[in-house]
Each structure stands twice: as structure tokens, then as C-alpha cells.
Write a structure and sequence with these properties.
This protein is mainly alpha-helical. It has helices at residues 4-8, 54-69, 73-76, 109-115, 123-146, 156-178, 183-212, 221-246, 252-283, 290-311, 328-353, 355-361, 368-390, 398-401, 407-417, and strands spanning 25-31, 46-51. The chain binds zinc ion.
Length: 418
């Protein structure tokens, strides 16, 4: 008798196996013991994350491999969790242009962790933010040995910024890992992801307000109210991005516009001092300083990040071809991290090169404006996330575990409920 999960999300039986599309990541292929013509030694159920039309090629490879190396049966019967195609998962889990490689929409926490070591359409999303977390942590630890974060208040904006550039990729990595535990868990995971990104924009504002502000704007009204306005922006950003998830299924276009606006507005606000400095530098035809060069690279990657997020390229042009490697979200993660690296270098350059001038022309950053603003921002974001999590249409467990003869109907129904 089949398991409930197989009834709800039946395996893909290889309907595309007769199409010879060559090697490409695409389908989850199952070899059943009853299928004829198996290679000897592959008589256990074998799950292979493979490509369309790859079955025949795997067969040939197995034959050659067995003849050459006499591979033991155990090596060919490695069991990996089942993956699903887009029409087999509820609508809330579906991604534009991603056809295959979906994990089970009711995965356990352990399955989610293990899936990060299996090739799914989320694997590179997880790793492209998990590994950079360690890079930024390493940079942070190095700075701890050279900066006096405890008593030198000039370094506190940097402390807040470094904490947040470690936090946002880590939260994103966790969100991508655990987003397939349930529809509700998925929403909450991404609420936290948006919250961390929103706090990162606050960290940018705190560091820019202290180190990057143009000379002629120092002590002006924008400088004085920069951090309080940035706190208001985090409220707007987290609120708007979380809300966009509620309208995603009914109005995907509107949801995309809301979510993009939610992140673009704080970015433009934070970057105003930088835009001004770059423009003045270009008009004055004086060469870019080391700090400004890094800031310019950061801006280039930030624009690229925004473009990838909004455009869903390249998978929109060739749905199914970039399911595992190369889709826009992975590129978006990579561009965001590379941009953050250049931003960090720019902030560090400005911080050290402008210290004497800033110390003699403006007040030293206070605890309230830096760590206090961060704590206030975290509390505000947690409150917003809690509010949206409480507003989720929670469904009883049985509504997704009841059997259905038609999995596609099941998927559609769940999508409507969400
Ligand atoms: Zn992401």
C-alpha cells in the first residue's frame, strides 16, 4: 500500500523519459523494481536527481561503470528524498519559471536540514547565503581584534553594521532551508527573512549616517534625522513585504510591486548621501577615492540585485532550464553578497580616512543612535512579524493530509486556501 505522501504527491513516472532532450537538470526519476531492463545491481529503489532523458544515459553509464570498476550494488542504491514537479506542490510553494526540484511541502525539520546536502531547487539558495555568513563573521572577528568596540563609541555604527551583515544572510539561509515544513512555516520563514533585510537597511543607514555622509550635509537636518527616519523605513519595509505575501496568490503582479517597493524605498533613502558624493565627485572631475570606488561597485551590484529580483531572469525565458543552477534567486543572492562585501570595504575606508575630520566637526555617535536604534529596530520588526504571523490563515493539519485521488486538484485547492 502506498504511503499517504505518495497518494498526495505521486512520484513522477518518467513521462518525459521518451524525449531525448539530452543532459540537463530537470526531473526526479524513480526506478521501480518492477520495471524491466534494469541493470543488475540496481534492483533496489533508486532515486536519482537527474536530467530529462537522462535515464538511458545513466543506464549506459552504469553498464560501462560496472564493466570497468565492478561498482558494488550499495553505491548504486543510495536513497535520496523524493523531489516534485511544480504541478505536484501547492501553489504557495511554486516559483515562477522553476519546474522541478521541489521538496515535499510537509518536510520535517530534519528533512529540511538534510535536503541542503541534496540537489534541489533551493540548495544553492541555502549555500549562497550560508557560506557568506561565515565570511562576514570572519571579517567581524578580525575587526574585533583591531577595533575597540567596547569603549570607542566611534566604532559602534560599524559594530551594528557588521552584526546585521552577518544576520541577514544567515536568516535568509535558514528561511530557504526550513520553508518547506508547511505553508504557514514558509510564510513565517520569509517574514523573518524580510525582517533581517529590513534591519540590514537600518544598519546601512546607521553606518552611512556616521561615516559616509557628505561633508556639506554634516549637522544638517537629514543628518540629524537620518537614523530615526531609517527606523520608520524598517517599519514600512517589513510591513509592506510581509503584507505582499498575503496577496501573492490572488494578485502576483501587485505582490511583486509591493515587495520590490518595500526594499527599494529604504535602499534609495540610505543611499542618498552616497549618490550625492558620487555625483559631486563626477562633476568635480576629481578621481574617486578608494572608499568611493568601493561604494560605486556596491551600487552596481545593488542595481543588478534589484534587476534580478524583479525580472526573474533567466528562468523566465527558459522555464525548467535553470531549476537547480543559475536561476535568478541564486544570482540575486550572489550579487547581494558581493555588493555587501564592497559596501563593507567602502564603509571601512570612509571610517578610517574621515575619522579626524568627523571627530572635529560632528558629535561622536551615541549609544542610543547606534546600539539603541538597533535594539529598537529589532523589537519593532519582531512585533510586525508577530502581527503578520498571527494574521496568517492557519489551517488544521488534516486539511493537507486528507487523501485525494487527484494530486493536481489537491495542489490547486491548497493554493486557493492559502
Ligand atoms: Zn533568498
Amino acid at each position: 500500500m502506498k504511503k499517504v505522501s505518495d497518494q498526495l504527491f505521486p512520484v513522477w513516472w518518467g513521462s518525459r523519459g521518451d524525449q531525448s532532450w539530452g543532459w540537463s537538470w530537470g526531473c526526479c526519476l524513480k526506478w521501480e523494481a518492477s520495471e524491466g531492463g534494469q541493470p543488475p545491481g540496481c534492483n533496489c529503489p533508486v532515486w536519482c536527481v537527474l536530467c530529462r532523458g537522462g535515464r538511458q544515459q545513466l543506464w549506459e553509464a552504469c553498464q560501462k561503470g560496472r564493466r570497468t570498476f565492478r561498482l558494488p550494488t550499495d553505491m548504486l542504491s543510495l536513497k535520496l528524498p523524493q523531489l516534485f514537479d511544480i504541478h505536484q506542490v501547492p501553489k504557495v510553494f511554486q516559483e515562477d519559471g522553476i519546474i522541478s526540484g521541489y521538496r515535499h511541502p510537509r518536510s520535517s525539520a530534519l528533512d529540511c536540514i538534510l535536503s541542503s546536502f541534496q540537489m534541489t531547487n533551493e540548495t544553492l539558495n541555502i549555500w549562497t547565503h550560508f557560506l557568506p555568513t561565515w565570511y562576514f563573521l570572519w571579517r567581524f572577528c578580525s575587526l574585533c581584534t583591531t577595533q575597540n568596540f567596547l569603549t570607542d563609541s566611534y566604532t559602534w555604527p560599524l559594530l551594528v553594521y557588521m552584526l546585521l551583515i552577518c544576520l541577514y544572510p544567515f536568516t535568509s539561509s535558514c528561511a530557504h532551508t526550513f520553508s518547506t515544513m508547511s505553508a504557514e512555516a514558509r510564510h513565517i520563514c520569509y517574514f523573518f527573512d524580510y525582517g533581517a533585510l529590513s534591519l540590514y537597511s537600518l544598519g546601512c543607514a546607521i553606518s552611512y549616517g556616521s561615516y559616509v555622509m557628505p561633508d556639506c550635509w554634516i549637522n544638517g537636518w537629514l543628518h540629524l534625522y537620518f537614523v530615526p527616519m531609517a527606523i520608520g523605513n524598517t517599519l514600512f519595509c517589513t510591513g509592506m513585504s510581509c503584507y505582499s505575501r498575503f496577496v501573492e496568490l490572488q494578485f502576483p503582479g501587485k505582490s511583486k510591486v509591493l515587495r520590490t517597493t518595500a526594499f527599494v524605498v529604504p535602499f534609495i533613502f540610505d543611499t542618498l548621501p552616497l549618490f550625492y558624493r558620487v555625483l559631486v565627485s563626477c562633476w568635480g572631475s576629481c578621481g574617486l577615492s578608494e572608499a568611493l570606488s568601493n561604494h560605486c561597485y556596491h551600487l552596481m551590484f545593488a542595481f543588478l540585485t534589484c534587476f534580478l529580483f524583479a525580472s526573474h531572469l533567466p528562468e523566465r525565458l527558459a522555464p525548467g532550464r535553470f531549476d537547480y543552477i543559475g536561476h535568478s534567486h541564486q544570482l540575486f543572492h550572489i550579487c547581494a553578497v558581493v555588493g555587501t562585501h564592497f559596501q563593507m570595504e567602502g564603509v571601512l575606508s570612509d571610517m578610517s580616512s574621515r575619522r579626524p575630520w568627523l571627530n572635529s566637526n560632528t558629535a561622536i555617535p551615541s549609544f542610543l543612535e547606534t546600539v539603541g536604534a538597533l535594539v529598537f529596530g529589532v523589537l519593532l520588526n519582531l512585533a510586525v512579524i508577530g502581527l503578520f504571523a498571527a494574521s496568517l490563515p492557519w489551517k488544521p493539519q488534516c486539511s493537507t493530509s486528507s487523501s485525494s485521488s487527484s494530486h493536481s486538484q489537491q495542489s490547486t485547492d491548497e493554493g486557493k486556501e492559502d
